Amino acid sequence: MKFTARLFAVLLSASVITGCDYLPMRSQQPETIEQQQPKPAITVDQIDQIAEKITVLIDTVNPGSGVIIGKKSGFLTNTYYVLTAKHVINGKNEFDIVTPDGKRYSFKANDQAITLLPDVDLALIKFKSKEIYQAATLTDYDFDNRNKFYDGPANAAVRAFVSGFPDPNKQKEFPKRKRLLTVGSCLNKLDSTFFVGQEEFTVDNYEYAYTNSTYYGMSGGAVLDSSGRVIAIHGRNTGVINAQGQKIILGMSLGIPITSFLRIVKQTDKQVPLALESSAPTPLSGDIPQKYISQLLNGCRSSIGCLNYSNTYERLGEFKTALEAVNASLYGDINFYAAWYQKGKILLGLEKYQDAISSFEKAIELKYDFSPAWDSRCFAYIGIKEYEAALKCLNIIVEKINPNSFMAWHLKAGVLDNLGRAEEAIVANSRSVEIRPNAYGYNDLGSRRVKVRDIKGAIKDYTKAIEINPNFEPAYGNRGNSWMIEGDCKKAINDFNEALRINPENLRNHMVSYLGRGFCLGEQGDKKQALEDLNKAALAAKITRNHDLAISALSEVLELEPTNFSAYWGRGTAYDNSGNYQKAIEDYNLALKYKPNNNTGIDIYGNRGNSRLKLGDVQGAIEDYNQAISIDQKFVSAYRGRGSAYSKLGNSKKAIEDFTKAIELDPNLAYVYLHRAFDRYNNSNTLRMTFGDGQTPLDFWYDDGKEDTLQDLKKAAQLFHEQKDESGKKELVQVISKIQNNLNNVVLDEKGFKFQDELTKIKDSIDTP
To answer: Which of 314, 373, 383 is nearest to 352 (CA)?
Structure first.
């Protein structure tokens, strides 16, 4: 094995930068996460029932909430442990815990049953009772890592539920003291950093941001996942402004993860009996009942009322209703800067970036120092990859609005990266970690140093990230890569082992670790383990569509096993997916050469046919498809590919025959219906006639095969809709437009105009973004 230039390039590009240089969109649906130990899914009502049994009221001046997290059964009395936000009881001379059955348990400020936990806004309260109360189930599941085969946006949200008692003295919309459960989505820790200001985020270990509506009095209440387990303790809100004597919440709610409580309580002498689970939550069963939404709405009777109404729906991802409400707010007061900001946020959620930018600019015009509008405007520019405009916006923030904005400096580093200004990106990243030292920031700084070949500096930054968070997995993998580049495989393997130990199931994050460790083990002569790691890296790269990494991993496999047909086949597929069709064909040739006798090679013939077709070798592609079909006459993809090849040759009749055969074998092939429709149209006839001087031919409509074309287009539209294939919908619109353009050159009769109308109806029915 040798440390190739390609492997070096892959390691450089694969250094994981965790900081987001784009806006994490809240329009995404909460992620459905695979269970390690499946449990029955539960409904929102069932989660509410769980929350009712574990949530307590903490009655005092400026009251709050709490959650029963532990229970120790005794002979005559039971001991219970309540976890709440420290600020709910800190400085209070006395308070009562009111349990779900209405009983009160009184405490004084110096009571030994109260423990104010250090370095975190949490307090633990112990009380004894003859009554039987339910204790919560906690979870330390790592929502940042998701499941190992998840192939969606890394920032996808997790459904969250907050339970607590709003204070009726501070919220006129809640005239009675009654427990409330609100529904929203919890972002992962990294994305949370970019939705809240650094001071609000870092004080007292607040690490989770979520979209749930929360109110005075709910501090200390439970944040639950979709399995009804406590994932955090609620405590704060961001983006709170006062206008016309009323409170408006334009930001997010914040909570302290249960993992922080578990870490800190270990440092005390408190022994708390806990029910703790580490498995992923089950997906939610059923929809969210309307009552959990309507309970938050106080009507749209004023500009501020409409703004709060809009904010409630925006937090739930109901952007259309939110937009209508904020427009009503602006109708009442066109110069209400907070409403313009809110409108911009909604438009961001709808991915209407230019309109969002206009709204943020209006908010800034009305209130120049309103930093959330500046931040969001920068996000919007990044979302449409207008990096120069984003940089100009960020420079204004760090020079005039808030020079100590961690978020602005961190985003500036990402923007400079995208502009190819690597050294300046390092300066900006360095400033961000100077303002707020954090593992994410140091990890990103290390990865940026790798790009300018400052490997020793990168190792120092990764080490700093690990010192801040000893379980920060990406830093171990990245430092392992750096040790590899430095030629120290022993230290590299140690780091890769540590990364794999932290979360062994996460193939997404570990593909680079498997690649690096496989390479190093091969260098050390451990061929068996090296092959195992390299194949895992290739599998992970395939799942995550990281074609360069797959090519590197399989190239290392072939260094160890030069006749491994599966590696040639897999690498050929990776080359094909990355657009290098000639290299793909070369690997498919070698795969066929080394294939074992018990393998027919049918898939390889099909793949090689696809690559040949993409290179324009249509006859060669047809030969491969013929070979595949001769092996298996039910090989769907070969009929589909051969149909496309015949279509390229202008042989619509044979193309239609192959597409029809593919549909007979699999009636859910939306693209095949689409392609057959186009060939059916091309195979139908128009009547060409010349007049006068014979130099001006005209095509006349001839109704032959046009009805079949319409039926195929309708079926394709139906399947694309059912399969939620947005790319397919766009291609369908393009095909219809192409047919319509052709019809512009044809003299149509009544049936022709009807055909044209039907095309328009199909096109209009397609809900493209």
So the answer is: 383
